[in-house]
């Protein structure tokens, strides 16, 4: 298992630092700073109270928690890249796909931070790409599921 060191600033000293919940967990659980109510079909941005310095050569993503999705239909709305040079507070954008309002309490685990290596590419412009078995067949072309 690859282990890297990452600097973190805790903006709210009363909340725990993000943490792995099991020995082989892939994501660090992030906590909500404030109480919030998310109405059905509403999107809310939730503060986590932490800033991180992702090491050069890595990127972060914030992903949902399966329990929130399965039990309450609360999903991370946008899974975007957190670049290594971003220094702002981590925010989690959640949406409620359920039929009832959902309440988030201060300290609730609301998402997971995943840190992954990044490969940089050097572009080589050509007039044609090499052939492959799949070719240019798109969505659904490799099977029925």
What do these coordinates show?
The protein has a domain of 92 residues: Distorted Sandwich (Deoxyuridine 5'-Triphosphate Nucleotidohydrolase, Chain A), CATH 2.70.40. By secondary structure, it is mainly β. It starts with 6 loop residues before the first strand and ends in a 28-residue tail after the last strand. It is 5% helix and 37% strand.
pLDDT under 50 segments (min length 5)? Answer: none
Structural class: mainly beta
Examine the secondary-structure arrangement and name the CATH architecture of the domain at 26-117. Answer: Distorted Sandwich
How would you sum up the global shape?
A: globular
Q: Find the CATH superfamily of the domain at 26-117.
A: Deoxyuridine triphosphatase (dUTPase)
Cα-to-Cα separation, first versus last residue: 32 Å
What composes the largest sheet? 4 strands, antiparallel
Strand order, sheet with most strands: 1-4-8-6
Q: What portion of the residues fall into strands of 2 or more residues?
A: 35-45%
Round the mean pLDDT to the nearest integer and report it. Answer: 94
Which CATH top level class of the domain at 26-117 fits?
A: Mainly Beta
Which topology of the domain at 26-117 does CATH recognise? Deoxyuridine 5'-Triphosphate Nucleotidohydrolase, Chain A
Helix content: under 10%
Radius of gyration: 19 Å
- Return the string of H and E elements: EEEEEHEEEEE
Count the beta strands. Answer: 10
Tally of helical runs: 1
């Amino acid at each position: 298992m690859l282990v890297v060191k990452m600097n973190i600033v805790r903006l709210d000293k009363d909340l725990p630092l993000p943490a792995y919940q099991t020995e082989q967990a892939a994501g660090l659980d992030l906590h909500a700073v404030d109480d919030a109510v998310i109405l059905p079909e509403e999107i809310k941005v939730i503060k986590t109270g932490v800033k991180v310095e992702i090491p050069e050569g890595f990127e972060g993503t914030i992903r949902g928690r399966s329990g929130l999705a399965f039990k309450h239909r609360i999903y991370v709305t946008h899974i975007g890249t957190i670049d290594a040079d971003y220094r702002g507070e981590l925010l989690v954008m959640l949406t409620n796909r359920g039929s009832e309002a959902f309440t988030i309490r201060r300290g609730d685990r609301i998402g997971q931070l995943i840190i992954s290596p990044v490969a940089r590419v050097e572009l080589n412009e050509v007039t044609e790409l090499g052939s492959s078995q799949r070719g240019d067949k798109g969505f659904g072309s490799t099977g029925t599921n």
